[in-house]
Write a structure and sequence with these properties.
This protein has 97 residues and is mainly α.
């Protein structure tokens, strides 16, 4: 049995749980794209579209990472803006009680 036949015996990972988690906990719009691709994996596999299933699996994983990265970037920006607000507020004397 060659490796190409082995690739078609088990469906690729659909990353549906990861897509749902990144949608709920990270970035909603990008996570929805990941869910859409994740939902396509099994149906394409069952229809015999093995290349399409692998492509959807790869895209679901990519969009889940993009969603996670967007959430991290948003958190970093929020943290920087909060620190800048405290520093500027301190310089302006807004925290003198």
């Amino acid at each position: 049995m060659n490796s190409q036949q082995e690739d078609f015996q088990t469906p690729p990972a659909n990353y549906l749980v990861w897509a749902i988690l990144t949608t709920v906990l990270c970035c909603l719009p990008l996570g929805i794209v990941s869910i859409i691709y994740a939902a396509q994996v099994n149906s394409k596999w069952m229809a015999g579209d093995y290349a399409g299933a692998q492509n959807s699996s790869r895209k679901a994983k990519t969009w889940a990472w993009v969603s996670f990265g967007a959430a991290i970037l948003g958190a970093v920006i929020w943290f920087v803006l909060a620190i800048l607000g405290v520093v500027v507020g301190g310089f302006l004397g807004l925290f003198d009680f």
